[in-house]
Amino acid sequence: MTKIGLEIHCQLTKLESKLFCSCKADYRGFEPNTNICPVCVGLPGSLPRLNKKAIEKATIIAMALNCQTPSKIAFFRKNYFYPDLPKNFQITQLNIYGPTSIGQEGKISVEGKEIRIRRIQLEEDPGRLIYEGSSERTQITLVDYNRAGTPLVEIVTEPDFENPKQVRLFLNILSDLLENLGVSDPSLEGAMRADANVSIEGGSKVEIKNINSFYDLEKALHFELTRQQSLAERKIEIIQETRHWDDRRKITISARSKEGEEDYRYFLEGDIPWVMIAPQVISRLKKEMPESISSKRERYIKDYDIPAQVADVLSSDKFYSDLFEHAHNEKNAKEVANLITTDLMGFVDTKEKRKESMLTAKHLSDLANSIIENKITRNSSKTVLQTIVKTGKSVSQIISELDLGHVSDEKELARVIDEIIKEETKAVEEAKQKPETINYLVGKVMKKTKGKADAALTLNLLKKKLSEY
Amino acid sequence: MNLSISALEYIDAIKNGDFTIEEFTSKTLDHIKKIDGKLHAYLSLNEKVLDQAKELDKKRKAKEKIGSCIGMPVAIKDNICVKDTKTTCASKMLEKYVAPFDATVIARLRKQDALFIGKTNLDEFAMGTTTEFSAYGPSKNPWNPEYVPGGSSGGSAVAVSALESITSLGSDTGGSVRNPASFCSIVGLKPTYGLVSRYGLISYANSIEQIGPMARTVKDVAFLLNIISGIDPNDNTTIDNHGEDYLKDIDVGIDGKKIGIISEMVGKGTDKEVSSATKKALSKFEDLGAKCEEISIDMVDYSVASYYTITSTEAGSNLARYDNLRYGFDFDLEGYEFNSYIAKTRKNFGPEVTRRLIIGGFVPSAGHTGRYFLKALKVKSRLTKEINSAFKKVDFLVAPTVPILPFKFGEKIDDPVAMFLIDFNTVTANLTGKPAISVPFEISNGLPIGIQIIADSMQEKLLFQAAYALESTTNLPKVPL
Amino acid sequence: MVSKEEIEHVAKLMKIELDDHTVHIERVQKMIEYFDILDKAATESEELIVKEQPLENLREDKYEPYKDKLIDKLKHYKEKFVRAPKMV
Question: Looking at the complex, does the CB of residue B473 fall below 8 Å from at least one CB of chain A?
């Protein structure tokens, strides 16, 4: 049976400061080595100062993944040499003296399959290596420590995944969950990374490292499974090893077992006393926790009669579910949800567009109400939305400026219909013989009224008129 | 104007107008110039100190507010960061390192207008008991320059003992403040773990070490502790002492107090002169109204092994950052590959540091952890429980600071286990986090003997009272300069 | 007892090039042998005493840029980076 396990590293990008110092947690956009201080560069005499919110956010993640959270947590040192690691040790968490990392033994469901979470730990990200020069011979290795000390949550799963598709679904669920909790923005480059371990029936476990994106992860898993299956078919032993994903050639290559020789000499970090997390803290965090995606989904369906598919899409997008919360009331909830998922999400999709959009919750609410009150057709709502996003003008202003008022006045409509009947004599003849072609005439009425005509009313009036004819 | 005055006397004298800060500083510098070539207490001197003294005199004249130290000189062990000053840890690995920030203790002293005369010598990275392991040559004991001054804070002890500074700061991981204080006949305190911030102390064994004040009188040490102690947000391991004043009531005496003499620390291995001095100290304590009894603390016999196992492990990790990539000394990396560059660079550690790093890699390594490192931690815990029980029976624990008299250079340097055992009486206080002080008690054939007093956690006030009381029974000769 | 090979292996792990093998190795062996005394200490059931702090003690999550341009005070390459030897 195929077994896949994951080690996911997720940056807590929503924190203000790093894990052990007050430099900025989100290092993106800084000139090299300008987001550093004596602590995150590990200068002699510097000491770590643990970030309280990091503990709280990590605890929330642990709770959202149904983990047990211990009442006392500790930090350890993982000792190894690498230029991106300024102290040549990483402060991380382990469970060698009993459960001391931020969460253990959790679970999450992926399409009915339960994935067990072995543990969750807090640790610091190292800096970044940059290479200057193209030729491998003359290349210069440079280090930028801006990222060193960024808070990371590592989530380790049991090897419960049976195929790469489950892995992909899980990662999507996890991304949405983390975004929904307000702890991280997974869309930021490098904010979420994953390593994997893979084994097939009768073979040893193979670790795959150096995977830079979730897209690459799926590719790597497919490649590795194929590689292992082909070895098994030829009755060649699959040895236990660590392999690196080669992004250029899209293959995994053996990492020359340097990993096996590594001895991290783990021991307690003496500069950070064990942190006691009182039960009152846990209850406070539970209360402060944002509503879960599944809970939102259930509520949308139950309380507002929103269709399941719409509820799925809306609940798993934090930006839009937040917008929905502010925009809706009991009467217009369904319409607001519809506007968001049918129209808005389509053209305000990217992060930049969301940032630049001038649309507010009030706009949405006003628009939904206008549709419900028949002041405007649903057909025109897309135009209105686009204008709001671009200009931020009020709904009523846009309706009058673009002359989108709903034509539901029967007399007005009748007048327009008469005009169309006069103009489209051929179509009228057709419609009398083949009633289904009446929609062409309805379309013409819509065009003439610039989409403002009430469609249902138009159809009825047209039918009546034609029968009189 | 006598260079042998105490800190409190100095402050009174300045306030009295007996002399200016500049005059005293200048005389100190002249004295250093005369004798430090021989004694080598200092690794570097503060070039600007005379200007800084003049500035302070100006401020005083203008009746501006001035800190409580009023220009009193403090010599600083060279493993404590002083901003924009070379901080070498007496190692070639940090030959060119200039600290970009002040240690918290330095910032606090600066605020009180202390003057930093210079950085003092130590065993490399604070690993040693004689300063023989300094990469820049040892310091000499002013009582007899053929003898070691103790270590690792040897330079700080010599500076104070030889009147090259009124006070100094050292660091104590296994006895490194108390041991040289005893060998040089001055007072040295290792505070409760967490009482003094370690921010800016270059780590050797961070779960055990403390910065310690050193001076010629108990009151001076208490005066310094008032300034440098207290909770620091830059050091998560510090404890709040609620602004305790250690000078207040320091002379109340110890009438009625109970004293336990640790039997494991006066047994075999103790020089007979040290033994007899200890007996004398006990009778002095009884004269002062205290009751003395023998107390056995089993785990003391394993304390040295536990200490060196734990500290080597921490040192192995704390010194890993010295790869010469971000700071250190001049050694061009062109043409080298990573592993070979790092290994070659780290050859610049001295022999003792190298040995401790290897041990520090060995004892916590997979396969050996349970036997050595974990075992050592358990001994540490058990020792702490035993000493806590002891403090339920007595107020203080007493033992000679060092079981042996100061010895000549080169005598022990080739025997690593003999070097270990010099710390036999001092590591217990470090492993258990308890405050301990060494008080100069006797000069035996020209060689100093100090008595160590240990109190329960955060009981420095009590500790100073006992130390002051013992000090007042002594009448020691002047250092033969 | 600890073997010469083990000591050499550890030295590599600690990234220290050992020049004069014998002097160091003999002394290190003696030092580690001294630790054998720990075997005699009766501490099997001993629980580790650890230092603790309440969550409230910890630092508030605030961004405060470091006031100095630190890279200027470190070894730097083109004033922006730290340089590392060639990674193999």
Answer: no
